[in-house]
């Protein structure tokens, strides 16, 4: 494959948003598995190399080839350990994939559930077959074929169905109890909402109920678990993180106060002013002027 020009993360994300999908090759020990910053895209990675993948409250150590399914609603991170790391990554929105009437919600798939198994060990024969599918997607992505989106959707579905045939990996480290598990999932999901990068991508999860819904638990159970493990309420954790982000936006951007308020999920700037003053004793404008 010919070398492609290096694009900035901003250019990559703009292209991804416009098309609803992107597929590319990982050709070195780089940050390719983490190159995108948009949080509303699903991810499928076929990688060979040593790494540790953290998914919700579990961790998996990969020593060879694995197929990974990332869900934007479930926090995950990737630690590359080996000096050589190769493979492919495909990113796509749920809207892109579910344009087909045959597709069900991805969140119902065992590959993308919080309690599911998103990491599968791949044999050399399976890797060869999946490599071919990823290569076909990359080639098709560059064509002007009128129905290439539908063809790429079919390739993605083929990968998903091949994965469903495989035995899921059981090499996860589980937390000792359910409260610890759900608290870990909440804290990682909370951190995953940040930083706020653009005004038109406002904070989506702003209440304990929002987080409970994404973690597939009742809000009362989430609140009890978080308080039991951390000694603080779910709302307190959310407020603290929003306040930290508010200070960073006031200090390091030229966004006006109203834009910052909306970006942080406040319906009206006055709500943001009241929130900020409650926790800091001053209003956002005074805070910004004092930091100049």
From TrEMBL:
Classify the source by domain of life: Bacteria
- HTH araC/xylS-type domain boundaries: 184-290
- Which UniProt key words apply to this protein? DNA-binding, Transcription, Transcription regulation
Q: Does the UniProt entry include the keyword Metal-binding?
A: no
Query: InterPro entries under this entry?
Result: Homeodomain-like_sf, HTH-like, HTH_AraC, Tscrpt_reg_AraC-type_HTH
**One Pfam family named in its UniProt record:** HTH_18
Name this protein carries in UniProt:
Helix-turn-helix domain-containing protein
Q: What is the organism field in this record?
A: Spirosoma liriopis
């Amino acid at each position: 494959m010919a070398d492609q020009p290096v694009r900035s993360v901003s250019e990559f994300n703009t292209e991804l948003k416009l098309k609803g999908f992107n597929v590319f090759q990982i050709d070195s020990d780089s940050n390719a598995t983490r190159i995108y910053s948009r949080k509303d895209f699903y991810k499928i990675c076929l990688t060979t190399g040593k790494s540790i993948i953290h998914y919700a409250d579990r961790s998996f150590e990969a020593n060879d080839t694995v197929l990974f399914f990332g869900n934007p609603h479930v926090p995950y991170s990737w630690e590359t350990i080996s000096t050589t790391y190769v493979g492919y990554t495909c990113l796509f929105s749920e809207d892109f994939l579910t344009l087909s009437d045959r597709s069900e919600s991805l969140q119902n798939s065992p590959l993308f559930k919080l309690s599911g198994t998103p990491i599968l060990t791949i044999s050399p024969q399976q890797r060869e077959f999946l490599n071919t599918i990823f290569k076909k997607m990359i080639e098709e992505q560059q064509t002007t074929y009128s129905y290439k989106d539908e063809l790429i959707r079919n390739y993605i579905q083929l990968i998903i169905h091949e994965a469903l045939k495989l035995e899921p990996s059981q090499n996860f480290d589980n937390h000792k109890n359910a409260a610890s598990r759900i608290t870990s999932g909440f804290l990682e999901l909370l951190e995953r909402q940040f930083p706020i990068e653009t005004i038109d991508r406002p904070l989506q999860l702003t209440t304990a109920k929002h987080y409970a819904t994404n973690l597939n638990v009742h809000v009362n159970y989430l609140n009890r678990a978080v308080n039991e493990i951390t000694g603080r309420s779910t709302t307190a954790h959310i407020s603290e993180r929003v306040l930290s982000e508010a200070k960073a936006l006031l200090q390091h951007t030229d966004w006006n106060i109203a834009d910052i308020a909306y970006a942080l999920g406040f319906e009206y700037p006055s709500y943001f002013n009241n929130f900020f003053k409650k926790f800091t004793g001053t209003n956002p404008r005074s805070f910004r002027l004092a930091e100049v």
